[in-house]
Amino acid sequence: MAIHKGQGYTIEWDADKVLKRADAVLEVTSRKVAFLVKRDAIRYLMKLKGFTGNMARQIKVHVSRYKGGGYYIIAQGSKDWHPPYYAAFLELGHYSSVYGTYKRKGRGGLKGISPVYVPAEPFMRTARKQNLRKAQRMYQDAIDKL
Amino acid sequence: MNKVFTAIYNKFNNNVAHGAYTSVGGRFYLNVAPQGATFPYVVFFSVADANEYDTSDETEDITIQFNIFSQNNSVLEAGQILTNLKSLFDNCSLTVTNWRHLEMRRRNTYPNNDYEQSPPIVGYSVEYDILIEKTRS
After folding, report:
1. In this complex, is the C-beta atom of A109 within 8 Å of any C-beta atom belonging to chain B?
2. What pLDDT, in 10s, does the model give residues B67-97?
3. Mind listing the pLDDT tens digit for each residue in A33-75?
4. What is the 3-state secondary structure (H, E, C) of B68-101?
5. How far are the Cα atoms of A144, B7, B48, B49 from residue A122, in angstroms, in the given order?
6. A94: chain B residues, CB-CB within 8 Å
7. Is A127 in a helix, a strand, or coil?
8. What is the mean pLDDT of residues A89-106?
9. Which helix (H) or strand (E) holds A124?
10. What is the DSSP pairing of strand B28-30 with strand B57-71?
11. Euclidean distance between CA atoms B9 and B66, whole angstroms
């Protein structure tokens, strides 16, 4: 809003309105990026041998409650999972005596089963990294359109 | 990618007097440890690889993870290996054939244990970002 006072001339810059609009645009973009990462995480899972879709159904996008907001993508989160729990094992690789099928653990305990190193099949971090630059471009485009 | 794996492997094996090598007895494997491998050992593998091109250069940003496993009733052994590994690879310089190595930065460290074993397996997963570049051909 421009205000004319005597010989002075003041222009009020509506920063609040602009920032509010920018926030809304970035919020929408963040949501898009989160779902993009989720989609790619599922794509990586689909390439794995023995893919059944169970894990894919347990990958969810949540709104962050932390200061600063945003979204987070979580595989087998505390409220979204059903046994067996293996997202972190798959992502990081691990050492285990129950590789293959959980039935092997069974009533006989761990006897007779030689523990093995189970290689990692990263799907969450891979999806995140592959989309980093794309996300940066999406944010840039969104700001440019303001 | 193979060149980066080779560079990491060479970095480890060229420092036989370093604590990182001696604390695991030189057992440093790519992707998977052989079944029945003696503890402790380290396995490293690639997590993600992102490329970027500009008019003159090609840059690769690679995430590498090291998994440390120790079968011991004490967590101290795995902790010591972790400390040694960090001192060898944190901000180190790698020799990657035909590439310029820009940086190697540690990002995250996670615990990776299996307490069902006897003695328990104590482990850590350490993540590094490696940045390399070369002139575009």
Report:
1. no
2. 999 988 888 999 999 999 999 999 998 888 8
3. 999 999 999 999 888 887 888 888 889 999 988 887 889 899 8
4. EEEECCCCHHHHHHHHHHHHHHCCCCCCCCCCEE
5. 34, 22, 8, 12
6. 112, 114, 123
7. helix
8. 64
9. helix A124-130
10. unpaired
11. 12
Hey, how many other C-beta atoms are within 10 angstroms of the C-beta on B9?
A: 14
**Three-state SS letters, B27-71:** CEEECCCCCCCCCCEEEEEEEEEEEEECCCEEEEEEEEEEEEEEE
User: What tokens does A94 get?
Assistant: 């691990």
Residue B57: CA atoms inside 13 Å, Cβ hemisphere, count? 10
A95 vs A116: CA distance, rounded Å:
6
Which residue has tokens 């599922």? A42
Domain that holds residue A29: 2-144
Overall domain count for chain A: 1
B18-42 core/surface letters (b: 16 or more CB in 10 A; e: else): eebbebbeebbbeeebeeebebbbb
pTM: 0.80
d(CA B88, CA A74) in angstroms, rounded, equals 33
Write out chain B residues lying below 8 Å of A93, CB-based: 43, 45, 65, 67, 112, 125
What domains does chain B contain, in order, with CATH numbers?
2-135 (3.30.2000.30)
Structure-block tokens of residue A2: 């421009």
CB–CB contact B117 A115 (8 Å):
yes
Beta bridge partners of B29: B43
Q: Is A117 on the interface with B (CB under 8 A)?
A: yes
Whole-number Å distance between alpha carbons of A121 and A94: 10
